[in-house]
Fold Ribosome biogenesis GTPase YqeH.
Amino acid sequence: SENELFCVGCGAQLQSQDSKLAGFVPASRLQQTQETDLYCQRCFRLRHYNEVAEVPLDNAAFQDLLTSIGHQDALVVYVMDIFNFSGSVIANLRKFIQHNPVLVVGNKIDLIPSSYHVNKLQNWLQNQVKQIGLKPVATQLVSAKKLAGIDELMTKIENLRHGLDVYVVGSTNVGKSTLINAILQANSDLKDLITTSNYPGTTLNEIRIPLAGGGDLVDTPGIIHAGQIANLLTPQELKYVAPQTQLHPRIFQLNAQQTLFLAGLGRLDFVEGEAGSFVAYVDNHLYIHRTKLSNADQFYAAHRSDLLTPPQKQTDFPDLVAHDITTTVKSDIVFSGLGWVTVPKQVRLKAYLPAGIKLDVRPALI
Ligand code: GDP
């Protein structure tokens, strides 16, 4: 019956009642087919047309699944986006997974300019992880997209899992699906498995992929992180917040009383301090506008639906809210999900983000 069918792409239970919900397949297709490898319409479109459909995920189910990990012995692979670290944090992960060892994967290293040393990035990741109170058994930097670090990751997983199941967890947009595909690609046996047979999910929407030597690799649904700018944008606008290629730093020599707009998604006022360089690490196609602080409000009002897009004209897009910042050292002002602007030491700033989106200030990464 329909109740027992799950999408092999995302693990959602297949249904034909509501095309806006996860797991939708037209009724005609569900009834006719003899196939066991069924994709929901969303995954089908994603695979064939590279189209992203907006489907709400169920956070309660995800938390149940996390809790169930705590009731068994397993290795937890925690995927984080180094470009959007705070947006990748799953609150209280340890409470859910209990005693189980965690391997932290820092994904999307390909975005970081190549002049930056991997060793430094490794230290930075370890520090960030320590600051959120997690003591991982190992960390590994990867690019799921450019297939960097995947073999090293697999070796670490093999050495740490002792034949047990491996749960891959992460927030949405950290690149978890891309990573699972990269792992499958790197291991042709697994690739054959996933393309030729059906992986029954459970009501918790997990996808199990058998590993050589016993145990499964378990893909879990991503948890939606409240406060992610991605949640506010349409699929067309999302490409600006999940950059696909190496970032080219954009350098602005600014005097006090100047303002930078990150399209209509963020704004940084340089209120007071010595002139210096402000370096933006955001998607290469995101429009950045420099203006006088005294003009900024007026400029925003006049151009928020043409020059300063995204967001496109959306009546429900939250207002930009100001945060006061004073730096002591050279710092990154992190517009969560969008990127960051590196600013000089000892300056006074005002950073504006859409209401509800988190602002972070950290010592400069680069
Ligand atoms: P999930 O929601 O965690 O499963 O994330 P996805 O695998 O769907 O990826 C989210 C976005 O990040 C997509 O736009 C991917 O193309 C992009 N992405 C995933 N991995 C990488 C990576 O290693 N580098 C870069 N630059 N982008 C990535």
About this structure: The chain has three domains: 2-54, 59-219, 231-363.
